[in-house]
Amino acid sequence: MDVRSLGYVVIESTEPKKWLEYGRDILGLMPATTMPDDGNVYLRMDERPFRFAIVKGERDRLRCCGWELRDQGDFDAALTQFAEAGVAVTVADDSTAKARRVKGLASLQDPSGNGIEVYWGAELDYARFVSPLGIRGFETGFNGDMGFGHAVLPASRLAETHTFYKELMGFGDSDYMHFKFSPDPDDKGQGLHFMHVNNPRHHSLALYEDQENSLGCVHLMVEVHEVDEVGYCLDRVEAAGIPVVSSLGRHTNDHMLSFYMATPTGFAMEFGTGGLKMEWDNFTPTVTSLPSLWGHKFAMPE
């Protein structure tokens, strides 16, 4: 399976308007003017009609990640592979695919219950991206081919879920970390797999060993081009009284300079710059024991 990028996320929210204000006034995303006025909130950052869809629901959670395939041939082959592996897949009707602005769409779940949509034929409407906050651009590659950023998802069945993405969906390993949060010698710790797809971004997905996560997400990441934009965003977050989940820092494995903040849904958002762009030919996956070169002091909001 040839997954090209993390194209979008769908977030379920009891109050989608909070995401409109947060996305526009804190992240600097643009309300999507070419999407229908259907009561949902759509936010864009580049040539794509939207990258974040926030839909009205009875709970607050990440509903699914949308993974882009190259073309219809790859999409049809993916459906065959899922069927042969015994994975239940629902192929969307034309109206649902049209609502996502794609040619073909199917939904499923990974072994830990995280929602997945795979699609092909994503529309580029080329409506000019104008950040309400003057951000010149977000790092999404050529015509958005690097995706909007990355997602870190909870994996209650880490080994099985890692195998699912690697052997069935064709993701590659980038890095692995293992954390212990106590000096107890019997503390088995928690694993964290960083995985890439067919673009230069160091990781588009990470799987965190987490048995209890009602939000369906640990964090999402968006990347800007300029370091000052990270500082400006941090100022906005502090002025708005939004909890800072992690202080400014630079990660070891992808060199991202970033900080983390709370979102209206409760999971975190990493806002960063300077992430590595990789060449995957002959790459050897790494095992990293230190998550950050400096900074990134985490303090989860109460």
From TrEMBL:
Keywords, alphabetical: Aromatic hydrocarbons catabolism, Dioxygenase, Iron, Metal-binding, Oxidoreductase
Record-linked InterPro entries: Glyas_Bleomycin-R_OHBP_Dase, Glyas_Fos-R_dOase_dom, VOC_core, Xdiol_ring_cleave_dOase_1/2
Protein's name in the database: Biphenyl 2,3-dioxygenase
UniProt xrefs under SUPFAM superfamilies: Glyoxalase/Bleomycin resistance protein/Dihydroxybiphenyl dioxygenase (SSF54593)
Keyword field contains Oxidoreductase: yes
Domain VOC, residue spans: 5-121, 147-274
Superkingdom, natural source: Bacteria
Family label: Belongs to the extradiol ring-cleavage dioxygenase family.
Names of required cofactors: Fe(2+)
CDD domains: BphC1-RGP6_N_like
Cross-referenced Pfam families: BphC_D1, Glyoxalase
Family matches, as PROSITE patterns: EXTRADIOL_DIOXYGENAS, VOC
